Amino acid sequence: MDSDQLRAVQIKELEILLAVDRVCRKHHITYYLIGGSALGAVRHNGFIPWDDDIDLGMPRNDYERFLNLGTRELGEKYYVQTYRSQPNFPFTWAKVNLNNTTFIETALQNLKIHHGVFIDVFPLDGVPRGLACRFIQNFLFKALMRVPISISPRLTFWRCAAMDWIISRVPDDRSKVWANRAWGTERECMDRAVYGIPAFMNFEGHKLPVPQQCTKYLSNFYGNYLELPPPEERHGHYPLVVDLTKSHEDYFR
Q1: For position 41, what pLDDT does the model report?
Q2: Is residue 29, in this structure, part of any structural domain at all?
Q3: Going by DSSP bridges, is the β-strand pair 177-179/118-126 parallel, antiparallel, or unpaired?
Q4: Is residue 75 part of a domain?
Q5: Taking the CB of residue 174, how many other CB atoms lie within 10 A of it?
Q6: Is the full-model pTM beyond 0.70?
Q7: Which residues fall within 8 angstroms of residue 92, CB to CB, at 6 or more apart?
Q8: Which of 17-26, 132-141, 188-197 is predicted with the least confidence, judged by mean pLDDT?
Q9: Is 73 a member of any domain?
Q10: What are the two backbone dihedrals, phi and then psi, of residue 103, each rounded to the nearest 5 degrees?
Q11: Is 127 helix (H, G, I), strand (E, B) or coil?
């Protein structure tokens, strides 16, 4: 994407984010900008200039409430995509897609799923206390991650359901440590207090929630988060097709 097209995609993603924010405020659902979106809020007051996605995190209980409410509350303009709503979808987190747009990621191009412009919504799960239990959880999750994603819908659904069951065994309200286990990285295991009561920061002219101890969150996640990466690492998802005027379905006829 050139810079103009990237900015157009970011504006559409912001539209999705603000729609999700309205639903969450209405129903008192806690969420945070996480990952690169939290970094963008702190370092750039909005998107990282070369970023082409938005990442949200919700405590598991809030995440499940959002999935139950989202489709109805967001309306026909959006599509809440999970392995439950679309069995070919190969991930254990959700995407909120903007209908009548196209954003086809190269790695997913052969899957018959919704390929609209999207934002990611990740569950934040409790982490087992014991190292042995955490090791077993990681081992089972990563073993399932290695199963190819281009399999039948029934097997894809089973794979994701099993992974989701594994990472959600520890209730978020009973654990001192939370993590975005759906993404599967150890660096996202943090004290629950780091997330805490959301703080609000400027993101593209809107006050949106980030982890309460955002500086600590970003330091744990990125190290020296204020240092810009080298130019060769400044890139997004490398989409195969981007079209903000046509439905993704037009490309699969």
Answers
A1: 97
A2: yes
A3: antiparallel
A4: yes
A5: 8
A6: yes
A7: 83, 123, 160, 163, 164, 167, 182
A8: 132-141
A9: yes
A10: -145, 90
A11: coil
Q: Among residues 170, 179, 214, 208, which one has the least CA distance to residue 194?
A: 214
Q: What is the pLDDT of residue 236?
A: 81
Based on the structure, what is the number of domains in the chain?
1
Residue range(s) defining the domain that contains residue 207: 3-123+195-252
Report the distance separating Cα 58 and Cα 79, nearest Å: 18
- Tens digits of per-residue pLDDT, 64-91? 999 999 889 999 999 999 999 998 899 9
Which amino acid, residue 76? E
58 beta partners: 123
Residue in the block written with tokens 């190290």: 223
Q: How much is the pLDDT for 252?
A: 66
Q: What is residue 10's predicted lDDT score, i.e. its pLDDT?
A: 96
What CATH number should be reported for the domain holding residue 38? 3.30.460
Side chain identity, residue 145: M
Q: Return the residue matching tokens 């390929």.
A: 115
